[in-house]
Design a protein that fits this description.
Elements: E1 4-8, H1 13-24, E2 33-37, H2 41-58, E3 63-67, H3 70-74, E4 79-82, H4 88-100, H5 113-137, E5 143-146, H6 151-160, E6 166-168, H7 172-188, E7 206-213, E8 216-224, E9 227-228, H8 231-240, H9 244-247, H10 249-258, E10 261-262, H11 266-272, H12 280-283, H13 299-320, H14 335-345, E11 349-356, E12 369-377, E13 380-382, H15 391-413, H16 416-425, H17 427-432, H18 435-448, H19 460-472, H20 493-497, H21 500-509
Parallel strand pairs: 1-2, 1-4, 2-3, 4-5, 5-6
Antiparallel strand pairs: 7-8, 8-9, 8-10, 11-12, 12-13
Helix pairs in contact: 1-2, 1-14, 4-5, 4-18, 5-6, 5-15, 6-15, 7-8, 13-21, 15-16, 16-18, 18-19
């Protein structure tokens, strides 16, 4: 009998369509029943039309149902995939621009720091609503695959408070793995395949063990062409690489001081630690503006805004364009389809999954959500024991885990004090702001985002009153007039039309999993 896969937030066009096509590359899954749901009818319709076109072009037996009724989409599902962005770009703008008024300069703002924490406050109530529907109307052995950020917080909430079997999925490990192979190949005069090649041939000669927490995972063992690589050789490889030496200054500096390379981009990593983005005048020396993800102020917000506007404009051309055939050669390295394939067919797959720790990483708390190597087949998802992480790596993660724990509990309980304490303990926020600034900034974000924060409904009036009192008394602290250290202008559709190829490339760049590792 065909399985049913439901997508919540299916209007995430590039991401949903890629996962949809990945699943259909598996012969045994080509009759899958897909159910798409979204609160944005326009995006849902556009996505559905593109995917229906994929099915027709490839003459596959798969079916698609689209509905704004979430429970109807989830009913009877074997797998539920979360691709939501709660509050959309309207809310996301506040995550970036309000902290800027207090001196906090973020590149992405969807995982930690002030923006990531508030993103979690919007997401977690919705994740718990999804889990309620999943418990009540999906298959009893359903698996919830969470791709939505903040990934660790969402996954933590779904497991601990939603009581649903959940795995968080991300593509950061694959990107860093490619970079390591490319840097070492360059050092030793070998040619490396393109990092976007789904086949990833470099995995055959560059093997890694990578473990930590989502977006802060550490490559603790690298076996390159049959030999173990020490930190000194890896540092030399990255510092001599013509692109990475310019684009990955934060990651290289952390590698030099910690002895281990970290996942995620230069811009992402710089948000999670207190050292690289705390002084406006110094930020530029650590980042590169060739690609937004390497540190641009509000870079993710910019490319997402441009990408959304361009897709809405260019959609008729997408619909008329000739589709690439759905074949195994075009399958992306996203874990989702491989997990479903492993569970349904028994084929073994090794990937990196976000799950509750349960002793997998022995020097992180058991209750936190870790990202580590795992195996999937008919027997389920199995996580081997990693053991202790190096102390410096574990120390950085422990700070983030404590912020995540407070943030999750604050969102579940609607606890303003706990939310402010989470902000107070966030590494970069604490490096930039004093306690009163943090208290005021949190109030300001609560007031601005009130429509997406039902968990804080009874606290909004108090936050608004405190802000008004601070302004009247001259004690308001959010007075920095800045666009950040390295903010670029968001292009209008008219400006993007002048270079359609660049606009299409930028629309792809708004998907963090598809940013070229080499350009």
């Amino acid at each position: 009998m065909a399985i049913k896969v439901a997508f919540i937030g299916a209007g995430s066009v590039g991401f949903t369509r890629r996962l949809f096509r990945d699943i259909l590359t598996v012969p045994e899954l080509q009759d899958t029943r897909f159910a798409f749901t979204d609160i944005n009818k326009s995006n849902l319709n556009m996505l559905s039309q593109l995917c229906q076109k994929d099915i027709r072009t490839n003459k596959l037996p798969a079916t698609i149902s689209s509905t704004m009724n979430r429970r109807a989409a989830i009913e009877g599902a074997d797998y539920v995939i979360n691709c939501t962005r709660i509050g959309g770009l309207e809310a996301f703008k506040f995550d970036i621009e309000i902290p800027l008024k207090y001196g906090i300069d973020q590149c992405v703002g969807d995982t930690l720091c002030a923006g990531g924490i508030m993103y979690g406050q919007r997401n977690i109530p919705c994740v718990l609503d999804f889990c309620k529907d999943i418990r009540e109307v999906a298959k009893k052995d359903v698996l919830f695959l969470n791709y939505a950020n903040p990934n660790a917080m969402n996954t933590w909430a779904a497991i601990e408070f939603g009581h649903v079997n959940t795995v968080g999925l991300c593509h950061g490990v694959q990107g860093g793995h490619y970079q390591i192979a490319a840097a070492l190949d360059h050092l030793h005069g070998h040619k490396t395949a393109d990092g976007d090649d789904p086949a990833q041939p470099w995995k055959g000669y560059c093997e890694i063990i990578c473990a930590g927490i989502n977006h802060q995972t550490w490559y603790t063992r690298i076996l390159y062409r049959g030999r173990l690589i020490a930190a000194a050789e890896l540092i030399e490889a990255f510092e001599s690489h013509p692109q990475f030496s310019k684009r990955e200054k934060v990651r290289i500096d952390v590698l030099r001081r910690f002895g281990y390379y970290s996942t995620e981009s230069n811009g992402h990593l710089s948000e999670y630690v207190p050292w690289y983005r705390k002084r406006v005048k110094e930020i530029k020396k650590w980042i590169d503006l060739g690609v937004w993800i390497d540190g641009e102020t509000g870079g993710y917000l910019r490319v997402c805004t441009e990408g959304r506007n361009w897709f809405e404009t260019d959609f008729p051309n997408w619909l008329k364009a000739e589709d690439k055939p759905i074949t195994p050669a075009g399958r992306s390295p996203e874990h989702g389809s491989y997990i479903i394939e492993g569970l349904e067919t028994g084929r073994l797959y090794r990937g990196h999954f976000n799950v509750k720790n349960h002793g997998c990483i022995s020097n992180l708390p058991d209750d936190c959500v870790i990202e580590a190597p795992g195996y999937v087949d008919h027997n389920g998802i199995n996580m081997p024991r990693v053991g202790d992480l190096p102390l410096a790596c574990a120390a950085s993660l422990s700070a983030s885990v404590n912020v995540q724990r407070m943030s999750v509990l604050a969102a579940v309980k609607g606890d303003v004090t706990l939310l402010k304490q989470a902000m107070l303990h966030d590494p970069l926020t604490a490096a930039v702001c004093d306690p009163e600034e943090i208290w005021q900034m949190t109030d300001e974000m609560l007031v601005a985002q009130a429509q997406w924060l039902p968990n804080y409904r009874k606290h909004i009036a108090g936050a608004k009153k405190r802000l008004e009192t601070a302004r009247r008394s001259g004690q308001y602290r959010g007075t920095i007039k800045t666009q950040g250290a390295a903010r670029l202008k968001t292009k209008t559709v008219a400006e993007m039309k002048k270079n359609r190829a660049a606009a299409r490339k930028n629309a792809a760049a708004s998907d963090k999993g598809h940013v070229k590792a080499t350009k």
